[in-house]
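Quick one:
INPUT:
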């Protein structure tokens, strides 16, 4: 659900990238504030007040359930904006040294940037390392950055949502490979030039998971040393594939999450989405006209072998500005690991990161009428087991995403080579990383 309104912002790593701050994510890190696991239960008994920044639809209901269980604690839930707006407010608070919440929702791609600014509490001191087995490998890797700087809430293994009614009308088979996907896009657009198999107006939150799925590993991070190669084999593989869609005009030039996008999904102008497994609940709630028409399938791969990547997903973190980090950590532990809280989260359509829910017959056995009675969670859970490993984001990924439209984005507007756009993006990122104190290779 964390990609409900994914946007980008121009951001910098808060504060100067001093070696001491960078070391906070290294093996030699020492948390300025010390604590121990037993502090959490003691903090819950003592109680206090917390502020929680989130945009998830279940945030208030989860907080209410928590305070019902722990009446000595008061939790103020604040929607500081969806992703972009929240990150701006959070960075401003970090820079000012005050005004940050106790707990904040942060997407996986942005988490490292806040960890590197030395603004997050390393939760290992509270025994959070013992919770690792509860989560999928990909989401745990996203929060385990040399210290444990968050606890996963949801995950977003990529799947393909497609409009079965449109596929049937135009005789399209469900593609298992990307070659078949391109062929289906060609056939649909040839039969009706007003229809498209999918849309893409240039979105880094879309391109990077596709690069990940193609085998690209363009970023490497080792302390202050950052490697960037947006022309590695996997990055080029994706760009060459997507050029086959972009050049001939097979991609609807409609920005995702725009009003036009919702209309296109409603009237069948856009017939499929490659997107995170959190999307089915959003589609059902936002496109009622599609009831009974949509289905879920594995994302196409290059050779037909099941492989995917994470598209979106969030963790919650404890801010160092918290006056009561033990209480904040106790709330976070309950929020993202207790069955009671996760049940509330699932009621709002969230896709979990916890293996117990992903493996439960109740979860996989759901057959929503909106999706024609299909056991959609079986497909989504299988995708979560097929997420490719080894992908890293940049420690200034928030900034990187903000300049994607000015670099790779020009290829979309001009319908030109995406490889050239990736090279322009890389040049920009290399210059920026160097000015921020990184050794860029």
């Amino acid at each position: 659900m964390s990609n409900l309104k994914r946007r980008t912002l121009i951001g910098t790593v808060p504060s100067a990238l001093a070696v001491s701050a960078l070391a906070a994510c290294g093996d030699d890190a020492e948390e300025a504030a010390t604590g121990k696991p037993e502090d959490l239960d003691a903090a819950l008994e003592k109680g206090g007040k917390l502020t929680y920044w989130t945009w998830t639809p279940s945030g208030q209901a989860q907080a209410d359930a928590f305070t019902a269980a722990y009446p000595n604690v008061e939790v103020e839930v604040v929607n500081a904006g969806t992703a972009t707006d929240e990150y701006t407010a959070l960075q401003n608070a970090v820079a000012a040294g005050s005004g940050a919440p106790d707990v904040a929702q942060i997407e996986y791609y942005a988490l490292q940037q806040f960890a590197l600014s030395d603004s997050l509490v390393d939760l290992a001191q509270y025994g959070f390392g013992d919770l690792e087995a509860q989560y999928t490998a990909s989401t745990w890797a996203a929060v385990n950055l040399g210290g444990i700087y968050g606890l996963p809430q949801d995950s977003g293994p990529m799947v393909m949502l497609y409009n079965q009614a449109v596929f049937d009308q135009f005789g399209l088979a469900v593609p298992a490979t990307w070659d078949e996907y391109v062929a289906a896009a060609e056939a649909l657009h040839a039969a009706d030039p007003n229809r498209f198999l999918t849309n893409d107006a240039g979105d880094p939150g879309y391109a990077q998971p596709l690069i990940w799925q193609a085998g690209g590993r363009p970023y490497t991070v080792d302390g202050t040393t950052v490697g960037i190669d947006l022309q590695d084999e996997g990055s080029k593989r994706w760009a060459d594939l997507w050029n086959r869609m972009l050049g001939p005009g097979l991609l609807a030039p409609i920005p995702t999450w725009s009003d036009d996008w919702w209309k296109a999904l409603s009237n069948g102008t856009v017939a499929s989405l490659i997107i995170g497994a959190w999307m089915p609940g959003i589609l059902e709630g936002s496109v009622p006209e599609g009831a009974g028409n949509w289905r879920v399938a594995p994302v196409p791969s290059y050779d037909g072998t099941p492989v995917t990547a994470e598209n979106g997903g969030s963790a919650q973190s404890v801010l160092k500005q918290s006056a009561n980090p033990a209480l904040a950590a106790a709330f976070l532990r309950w929020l993202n690991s207790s069955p009671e809280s996760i049940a509330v989260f699932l009621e709002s359509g969230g896709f979990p990161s916890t293996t117990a829910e992903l493996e439960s017959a109740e979860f996989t056995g759901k057959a929503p009428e909106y999706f024609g009675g299909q056991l959609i969670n079986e497909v989504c859970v299988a995708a979560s087991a097929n997420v490719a490993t080894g992908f890293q984001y940049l420690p200034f990924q928030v900034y990187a995403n903000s300049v994607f439209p000015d670099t790779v984005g020009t290829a979309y507007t001009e319908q030109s080579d995406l490889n050239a756009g990736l090279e322009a993006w890389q040049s920009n990122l290399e210059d920026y990383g160097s000015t921020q104190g990184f050794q860029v290779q």
